[in-house]
Amino acid sequence: MLRTVLCYGDSNTYGQTTANKPDDRYRHDVRWPGVLRKLLGLDWLVIEEGLSGRTTVSDDPIEGAEKNGRSYLRPCIMSHKPLDLIVIMLGTNDLKIRFNKTPGEIAMGVGALITDIKSMPAGVDGRIPEILVVAPPPTAPDLKEWAPVFEGAYEKSRSLALHFERIANAHEAHFFDSALVVKSSNEDGFHLDAQAHSDLGHAIAEEIASIGWPG
């Protein structure tokens, strides 16, 4: 049986590089969904849905309404269903000072996404897909040229995992704290380097295996 996982995230799912490159994106086999695809093998279809700048539930007044993760989630799911699993890794962009959100409010945005997923018969045979919430790693203390955009983000980012875990538990979703295996690159302060993508892909593969899928 071929299972399908949708990886729904921001630039760290898209594969934004930490250093300037011509296309500013890691290759398919370097970014974590690609690593996951190789590890899961032919039994899984891994769908990448990463967008740089994506928030949980907010239109971005500077980068545009298309950055709102909630607005796009429903049509995205409808495009790819039936789904066995949806991995949500968002929250870093919500730390931008222009959104003025607390860690708890960012987690509530993730909760809204979970609620939306559960309201749709997007799983196999009309069931609800499994949901894995992945807390992004804290930003680095030094956000380089991004510091004015992410003013106060470092302190807030360190408590995101705690709030995300509470929300995931309240909604009976799976949870993983990515900070257990990766950290934000010191190159720019909030993106993952190539090694971190590899480590995260391996960790999420283990989390997927632990869910306990029926034969």
Description:
The chain is an alpha/beta fold. The chain has a single domain, classed as SGNH hydrolase (Rossmann fold), CATH 3.40.50.1110. It is 34% helix and 13% strand. It has a five-stranded parallel beta sheet with strand order 2-1-3-4-5, sandwiched between helices. α2 packs across α7, α3 packs parallel to α4 and α4 runs parallel beside α6. The protein starts with a strand and ends in a 5-residue tail after the last helix. The model has no long low-confidence stretch (mean pLDDT 96).
Identify the CATH architecture: 3-Layer(aba) Sandwich
What is the average per-residue confidence, as pLDDT, rounded to a whole number?
Answer: 96
The backbone outline, from C-alpha atoms, is globular
**Beta-strand proportion:** 5-15%
The third-level CATH topology is Rossmann fold
> Looking at this structure, what is the CATH superfamily?
SGNH hydrolase
Radius of gyration: 16 Å
Q: How many DSSP helices?
A: 7
CATH C-level label: Alpha Beta
Helix content: 25-40%
Helix-strand makeup class: alpha/beta
Kindly report the spatial arrangement of strands forming the biggest sheet.
2-1-3-4-5
Q: Unreliable stretches, pLDDT < 50, 5 or more residues?
A: none
Main beta sheet strand tally, sense and closure: 5 strands, parallel
Taken in chain order, the helices and strands follow as: EHHEHEHEHHEH
Summarize the structure.
By secondary structure, this protein is of the alpha/beta class.
What key attributes describe this structure?
hydrolase activity, acting on ester bonds; 34% helix; 5 strands; 215 residues; hydrolase; globular; Rossmann fold; Hydrolase; alpha/beta; five-stranded parallel β-sheet; SGNH_hydro; SGNH_hydro_sf; 7 helices; 13% strand
